[in-house]
UniProtKB/TrEMBL annotation:
The gene is xerC. Site-specific tyrosine recombinase, which acts by catalyzing the cutting and rejoining of the recombining DNA molecules. The XerC-XerD complex is essential to convert dimers of the bacterial chromosome into monomers to permit their segregation at cell division. It also contributes to the segregational stability of plasmids. Signal peptide: none annotated. GO terms for molecular function: DNA binding; tyrosine-based site-specific recombinase activity. One of its GO terms (cellular component) is cytoplasm. Gene3D superfamilies: 1.10.150.130, Intergrase catalytic core. It is found in: Cytoplasm. It comes from Paludibacter propionicigenes (strain DSM 17365 / JCM 13257 / WB4). Forms a cyclic heterotetrameric complex composed of two molecules of XerC and two molecules of XerD. Belongs to the 'phage' integrase family. XerC subfamily. The lineage of its organism: Bacteria, Pseudomonadati, Bacteroidota, Bacteroidia, Bacteroidales. One of its GO terms (biological process) is DNA transposition. PANTHER family: PHAGE INTEGRASE-RELATED (PTHR30349), TYROSINE RECOMBINASE XERC (PTHR30349:SF77). Residues 1-83 form the Core-binding (CB) domain. This is Tyrosine recombinase XerC.
Amino acid sequence: MMNEFLQYLQYEKNYSSHTVLSYNTDLIQFCNFLNVTPDEFDPNSVNSQQIQQWILSLMSVDLSARTLSRKISTLKSFWHFLLSRRLSKHNPTLKIILPKTKKPIPAFFKENEMTAALDNSMKPDSFEYTRNRLILETFYLTGIRLSELLNIQDKDIDHSAGTIRVIGKRNKERIIPIDKSLINDIERYITLRNESIDIFEPNLFVRNNGKKMYPKMLYNIVHENMSEVSSLHKRSPHVLRHTFATSLLNGGADINAVKELLGHSSLSATQVYTHTSFEELYNIYKHAHPRAK
């Protein structure tokens, strides 16, 4: 029945393989705690006390409230599925309360750091450098996720309209406007790619051998390049996404518009960026207003 649940998440809910793997890991961990295999697992023999004991065992290894909350959510979702399929007669997760989690303020790169990272003066005009710089620029100017950038194909770029088509979480499509400078850089890269590589896959960004890039490679490109200009502890593609959102909000963009650009399903996911923006506004006020000094 666990396999049924995982297939339901993957094919009916359209969850990513990474998310499904997390659910699977949580369920196996719970089975291990009960000292049963997934095949031996009987949902009707589990009670709320056992779940509470499992939670206590997780707390003893100093898990964060966020991770703990996710693991509890896994069990809640699992039993909801079991009940909907009449595979369980009761729901022992009903009395289990999710711990409150404090959402961290997203880290973001400063404007001068991004300017330095994208500065192409005195740099080689090679395929690899041009590609890596365009990857940084695309993340920064569109706010797309790593998985979304990885799957962009040439046909997704509308050069005349100035838009890029991406497929987000749960296979949701969205169209993102891009400026002329990014269009020009994409066209320059495509020309260089076509000259440098004889046969390549339909993806916009490819490796030197023409094959599709992989997530760790994209992560390393961003991390290595941003390490040269920033001292932030996290220097990942997702921080570039945070930087995109924060820059828009600091520039006065409507939060609902930012939500659509990011592909968020709810406004609450976007509102976390307003904390950063308000901090920025406060710093501007503190340094500029005569009564605040």
